[in-house]
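User: Some background: our group keeps a shared notebook of sequences we're curious about, and every so often someone picks one and asks for a predicted structure to add to the entry. Today it's my turn. The entry only has the sequence so far, pasted here. Could you supply the structure so I can complete it?
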Amino acid sequence: MKKLFALAAVALTLCGLLTACGSKTETANDVDLTGFYNALAEQYGWGDDMMDLDGEMLEMYYPGLGDIPAKQLLAKAPVMSYAVSEYVFLQADSEQDAAQAAKILQTRIDSQADGDAFYPETIDQWKAAKVLQNGAYVALIASGEHQTEIEDAWNAQFGA
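Assistant: Of course. Here's the predicted structure to add to the notebook entry:
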């Protein structure tokens, strides 16, 4: 009887561990990118200073990004380009698609850092911008003033 009880306790513990592991994976698959951006916008007071990049504007900023199959895509840039404050948050259909998106986003950073940003201060800020990939999720974070904080917030969603 004691052996049966011990065996049942071990089985229940294993089920609990497997369930806990499964919930971590599910949480990572359910990151709300719009909610993430809205929390940042509220925290940093972006308000109406940011515009959506979609359609022709998306293609102009990130050629080919709109062709990548995505479950979620949010792209924002400042209405006035006096400040480096550009964000793309994307959940691709696969890690391979996310890697392709990351290349497109890195091209944007490279071109801005190589002189397209015009002013020395903004070029330096673009040099600090990052593309981060976590599985099928990818982000371009170009935020001169809050770069590290926003990178950390992005990574925290994935337990990194």
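Suggested note for the entry: The helical segments are 2-29, 33-44, 55-61, 95-116, 120-128, 147-156. Strands lie at 50-52, 70-78, 85-92, 130-134, 137-143.
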